[in-house]
């Protein structure tokens, strides 16, 4: 009983020892998984924040009068107010341009970046578009559309492409307008600094020279005219850039429309080729069917004629078989009659040659001539036992070994020179003991053909 309880305690302790590391490993795995999930969520949030920052990074121009203008001195209040008003007009103009772009692409901006797609599918789409962004091939749209169709993306691929292109064009327009806004505002600030510096210098000079207020007003008017001229030049430049953008957009739309028309023409041509190919195939099948029907009819006619010939041949063979069987039966009967006649003749011959002797039991038990010969009874002088059984007419072993060619061959084989050039030359130069008889030479001549 004690041993049983000890075994139970030992098994319980062993189970606890095994379970404790497993629980510890399970808790460590759970903590690691939670930390990985938390880190993943944090990275996704940071990525979204960075993307949002990049999306909002186009509006980096501060509206209103730059703070640097408050540190500039101008002796003419009207000139200063005019320059400050120019800053406000510049902000209003570029803000209106941005608002026009937003109104123009309102349908694209109001949707999110994925446009109803999942994040994974949209990332695949962006990756493929980035791959072909620097490709100068005129057929690159067909190339990346084929690649996108192979990725098993949603069915509204072309619509998503149009919206993405519109969004990209909107971003490019906003970026261009913002860049021009920043550049124009910076140029206006530099121009204002130069104008104010020139006004201050002119005021000092006028004060020193006592030229009076009219000369100063004339200088201010000239400076204002310069600023107005610069403003008109900037407006004209902006107008020209806008016209160039519209022209480029029209060219892109026309190029896309031509590509669509070319693709439709190609599809129509391919469809027409397929229809022509199918028509040729159907005509070829019809022609083959007619040839097959003609061949089948001729084959059936031939088979019917051959069947008639075969029936006649079968009837003829049946008649021939009957004649053969009849002839065979006649031959068997004749042979049987001949056998009977032969047996009768043999019986008569047996009766004629039958032995007419009496039974002799002593002769059966007595020795025969062959048994007495084996025992040597009554044997005469016989020939020697060592005499050969047959008379030989060939060469003896002594004669063969006396041939110098055989002895030379054995010596060459012993030293390993039999198959060498020296061995062959020695065998050729060896003289025979006796010249061959002339009648032993072959007189056979090979034909030249």
What would you note in describing this structure?
With 449 residues, this protein is mostly helical. Helices cover 76% and strands 0% of the residues. The chain contains twelve helices and no strands. The longest helix has 141 residues, at 213-353. It is elongated, with a radius of gyration of 64 Å.
Helix amount: over 70%
> Unreliable stretches, pLDDT < 50, 5 or more residues?
53-59
How large is the count of helical segments? Answer: 12
Mean pLDDT: 77
Output the structural class: mainly alpha
Quick summary of this structure?
By secondary structure, the protein is mainly α. It is built from 12 helices and no strands. The chain has helices at 2-55, 77-104, 106-109, 119-131, 140-150, 157-209, 213-353, 361-365, 369-375, 397-401, 404-415, 421-429.
Structural descriptors:
449 residues; mainly alpha; elongated
Write the layout of secondary structure elements.
Elements: H1 2-55, H2 77-104, H3 106-109, H4 119-131, H5 140-150, H6 157-209, H7 213-353, H8 361-365, H9 369-375, H10 397-401, H11 404-415, H12 421-429
Helix pairs in contact: 2-6, 2-7, 6-7
């Amino acid at each position: 009983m004690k041993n049983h309880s000890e075994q139970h305690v030992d098994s319980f302790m062993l189970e606890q020892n095994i379970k404790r590391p497993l629980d510890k490993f399970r808790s460590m795995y759970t903590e690691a998984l939670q930390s990985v999930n938390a880190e993943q969520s944090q990275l996704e949030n940071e990525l979204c924040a960075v993307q949002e920052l990049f999306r909002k990074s186009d509006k980096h121009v501060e509206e209103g009068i730059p703070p640097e203008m408050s540190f500039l001195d101008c002796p003419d209040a009207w000139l200063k107010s005019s320059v400050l008003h120019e800053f406000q007009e510049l902000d209003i103009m570029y803000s209106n341009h941005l608002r026009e772009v937003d109104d123009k692409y309102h349908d694209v901006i109001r949707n999110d970046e994925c446009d109803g797609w999942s994040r994974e599918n949209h990332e695949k789409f962006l990756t493929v578009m980035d791959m072909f962004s620097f490709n100068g091939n005129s057929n690159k749209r067909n190339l990346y559309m084929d690649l996108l169709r192979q990725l098993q993306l949603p069915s509204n691929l072309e619509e998503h492409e149009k919206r993405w292109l519109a969004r990209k064009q909107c971003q490019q327009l906003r970026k261009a307008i913002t860049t021009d806004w920043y550049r124009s505002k910076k140029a206006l600030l530099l121009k204002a600094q130069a104008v104010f510096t020139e006004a201050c210098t002119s005021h000092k000079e006028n004060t020193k020279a006592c030229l009076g207020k009219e000369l100063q007003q004339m200088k201010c008017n000239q400076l204002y005219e310069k600023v107005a001229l610069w403003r008109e030049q900037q407006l004209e430049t902006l107008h020209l850039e806008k016209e160039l953008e519209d022209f480029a957009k029209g060219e892109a739309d026309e190029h896309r429309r031509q590509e669509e028309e070319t693709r439709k023409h190609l599809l129509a041509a391919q469809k027409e080729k397929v229809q022509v190919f199918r028509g040729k195939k159907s005509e070829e099948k019809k022609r083959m069917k007619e040839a097959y029907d003609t061949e089948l009819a001729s084959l059936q006619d031939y088979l019917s004629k051959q069947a008639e010939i075969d029936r006649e041949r079968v009837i003829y063979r049946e008649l021939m078989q009957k004649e053969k069987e009849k002839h065979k039966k006649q031959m068997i009967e004749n042979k049987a009659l001949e056998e009977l006649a032969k047996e009768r003749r043999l019986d008569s011959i047996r009766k004629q040659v039958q032995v007419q002797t009496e039974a002799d039991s002593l002769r059966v038990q007595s020795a025969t001539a062959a048994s007495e010969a084996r025992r040597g009874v009554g044997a005469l002088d016989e020939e020697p036992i060592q005499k050969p059984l047959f008379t030989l007419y060939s060469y003896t072993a002594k004669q063969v070994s006396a041939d110098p060619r055989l002895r030379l061959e054995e010596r060459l084989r012993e030293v390993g020179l039999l198959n060498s050039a020296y061995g062959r030359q020695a065998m050729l130069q060896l003289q025979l003991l006796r010249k061959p008889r002339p009648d032993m030479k072959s007189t056979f001549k090979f034909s030249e053909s």
